[in-house]
């Protein structure tokens, strides 16, 4: 007998390859993201505001996004909010309470650091 165990309150992962950064960069869609963590070698940057700017950066540099760790990359963690809007069924199902971990080329760090964060 095989038993599947699900951890409670653990977000379901979504592949970075399936994230529609163009969609998320347009208002009001950046609000679907709760926060973004950028893990540099010696520190962590948490973006909770200006999420649309981060999403637009991903739109502008799709060739610098990787699902796996490579040399000269930094780790990114994206946590999507729980969405209670029922009139956008497809996108709600796709991002609702999900999380994604991926890597970006470290050449994008100066642009990420320049994103103003109000918190």
Structure description:
The chain is an alpha+beta fold. Helix content is 23%, strand content 26%. The protein has helices spanning 21-25, 51-60, 89-95, 109-113, and strands at residues 12-13, 33-39, 44-47, 65-66, 73-80, 98-105. Strands 1, 2, 3, 4, 5 and 6 form a 6-stranded mixed β-sheet that branches. Strand 2 (33-39) and strand 3 form a beta hairpin. It is globular, with a radius of gyration of 15 Å. It starts with 11 loop residues before the first strand and ends in a 6-residue tail after the last helix.
Write the layout of secondary structure elements.
Layout: E1 12-13, H1 21-25, E2 33-39, E3 44-47, H2 51-60, E4 65-66, E5 73-80, H3 89-95, E6 98-105, H4 109-113
Parallel strand pairs: 1-6
Antiparallel strand pairs: 2-3, 2-5, 4-6, 5-6
Q: Helix-strand pattern, N to C?
A: EHEEHEEHEH
In terms of per-residue confidence, which ranges show pLDDT below 50 for 5 or more consecutive residues?
Answer: none
| Mean of residue pLDDT values | 84
Termini Cα gap:
49 Å
Bin the strand percentage. Answer: 25-35%
If helices are DSSP runs of H or I spanning 4 or more residues, what is the number of helices? 4
The number of distinct β-strands equals: 6
What about the largest sheet? Answer: 6 strands, mixed
The global form is globular
Q: For the CA atoms, what is the radius of gyration?
A: 15 Å
Structural class per helix/strand content?
A: alpha+beta
Helical content stands at 10-25%
């Amino acid at each position: 007998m095989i038993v599947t165990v699900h951890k409670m309150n653990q977000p379901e992962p979504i592949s970075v390859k399936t994230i529609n950064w163009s969609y998320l960069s347009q208002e009001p869609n950046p609000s679907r993201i709760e926060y973004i963590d950028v893990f540099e070698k010696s520190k962590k940057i948490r973006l909770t505001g200006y999420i649309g700017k981060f999403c637009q950066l991903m739109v502008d540099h799709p060739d610098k996004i990787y699902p796996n760790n490579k040399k000269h990359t930094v780790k990114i963690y994206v946590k999507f909010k729980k969405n209670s809007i029922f009139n956008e069924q497809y996108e709600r199902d796709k991002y609702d309470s999900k999380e994604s971990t991926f890597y970006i080329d470290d050449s994008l760090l100066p642009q990420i650091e320049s994103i103003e964060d109000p918190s």
